[in-house]
Amino acid sequence: MRMTGADAILRSLEAEGVEVMFGIPGGAILPLYDAIARGTTVRHVLARHEQGAGHMAEGYARASGRVGVALATSGPGATNLVTPIADAWMDSTPLVCITGQVRRHLIGTDAFQECDITGITIPIVKHSWLVQDVDELPHILKAAFHVAQTGRSGPVLVDVPRDVQEAELDFSYPDEVNLPGWKPPRRGHPRQIAAAAEAVAAAERPILYVGGGTLNAHATDELRAVAEAARIPVVTTLMAKSAFPESHELFAGHPGMHGPKWSNWALNKADVIVACGSRFDDRVTGKVSAFAPGATVVHLDVDAAEISKIRHADVPVVGPLKPVLAELAELLAKQTKPGRTDGWLAQIAEWREQFPLRYGEGGDMLKPQKVLEALQALTAGRDDVVWTTGVGQHQMWAMQYLECDRPRTFITSGGLGTMGYGIPAAVGAKAARPDATVVCVDGDGCFQMTQQELATAVLEQLPIVVVIVNNGYLGMVRQWQDMFFEERFSQIHLTHQLPDYAALGRAYGALGLTVDSEDQLEEALAEALASGRTAVVDCRVDPREHCFPMIPAGAAALDVLEYDPDHDSEALAL
Amino acid sequence: MRHTIAVLLENKPGALTRVTSMFARRGYNIESLAVGPTERHDVSRITLRVDAEEHSLEQIEKQMHKLVNVLRVQELVPGEAIERELALLKVSAPPSARAELMALGEVFGAKIADLGPDSIVFELVGSAEDVDSFEELVRPHGLQELVRTGRIGLARARSGSGRSRPKVLV
Hints:
heterodimer, A: 574 residues, Rossmann fold, 3 domains, 6-stranded parallel sheet, globular, B: 170 residues, Alpha-Beta Plaits, 5-stranded antiparallel sheet, 4 helices, 41% strand
């Protein structure tokens, strides 16, 4: 059918089954937005900042397991997408970003709103295309969606000059991609899977060290089958939170810098570690040379480059996790001796008793951990709650105190650690799960980086509940300055009361509530959760509270620092 | 340890940049790089020389394999590959030194590509080590300018197509 490039983009998105796209129009992408006005089955959500659009697409992708789509114009529109693209790159979130570009004859002339976005993003995309010929557009979009979601998923970018959007072509959407250089593995090698099963079946203290790749691979059922087949305890990284039910008897918590001590001990004292879509990130391992000394490593990953990148893999298995785990579970069911791990599970349970999460109980101010405990209590047993977070102390408390039993219910920025991720990611998650209550646990610093997307939430009728763990500071920075820079506090005081977050929420048409003390907490949170509206709950908490446990950067994971009730909290401007 | 890597990649805009950017980003140093067409019009070949430990080399090759435009990566193992380099050297050559320089060139099989009143331009094709040696020998005479293409290489006719990587991925 004869149509313009802009229409061809929309027909391609429709052919890919895209439900929703997030974006902001501008000069170089006007023809595409004109085509949107003429009609498409894809819902467009108008963000207030392109970074918001990108994080919304990410939140959508993580909540739905599908590809997120973000649109932006050239120049500043495109550069505003750089942070979400980098975020998606680090966390392997499938994303297709479509940017407008100046007309072909203007490329390279420093034209108005021109920038080399394909060049800028080379290190943070799986692949990108600058469309030079309108006839290639359907093939490029087909390839873009294919690359974004096959192998290790991640972001791709398609840059479309304005005159290519306006040019005409005979449109037909291809059935197949022609990418001779893109050959992600289709299955794991049976001999390696057998070797993995053998190592696990012989282990006395095995552990599944599960990363976000397991969620990206839609392999959570298969993961559970493996864990149950050989009764292996499971730790999930921050990115894998919700990949394994946290109420399950085999769940062993979260490893890493702010994971519970018992979880870190379980991982570091194991004799066989089955890394499953995880990448031995420094936030998990601590000092690499001291990580899990002596353990045999079985590493399952779709990305061969992760094998032995940080820690040598004794048994590497390269392949998509869904079939690999399914085959592994089958072998383990035959090979495992019943009761082999009972002693190990009892040991972990003992550590769990011995090292609970602890925090300060004294003082007049609301403790930040109480906010998370209250949220957990109010939502316990519900299977229709999706959490998002910003980055910092509140994020780590959310990881520690919220229990997630269903996949894709905890959405956070792990690898890049993007402050401000929470609110737009929540809007995107709500678009993916309109039935769910989507709650963004945010920090006061994070909130101020992307609060403008509250307008999107309200006007697009994608209501989210934003709970601000407001300690008036850039709290994690404060913690590091306190612990590692001799309490020299530098440029971290935001104040509890400016802005007045509840009033700001109301200015955006949301419900706005302020919580100053513990006795107001439950009522306010319950009201916000039940409101069905976008809500901002400003919980003003004690800034002196540090996030513990903590493995200091570069320290051995076994040397976890715990909350010390005798630690003298310094005087602070409140 | 130094390694020579041959990369076949699709002849697409930006493909070379993606390869070199990956090296820069991951902190690997490229010692020399030569790129040009192949027997297929839609495929280019890069010959890269890198200084890397075995572990890093494996990483480099795996990371390169992930690039969508990269079709094949192979290490050219010494002894199993032919490696050549072309160099042009402009050497000061007053009449008194000419005979000696020309004799040196003859030993290395260097051609005289150009001859001026005060200088000679030698053209030398050989192994990178040959080029190094010749360079050292003519340097005392006054090496005015030097350009080298960087190595190019092919697996030997008798040894198949070189060592394909990564081996660990069985």
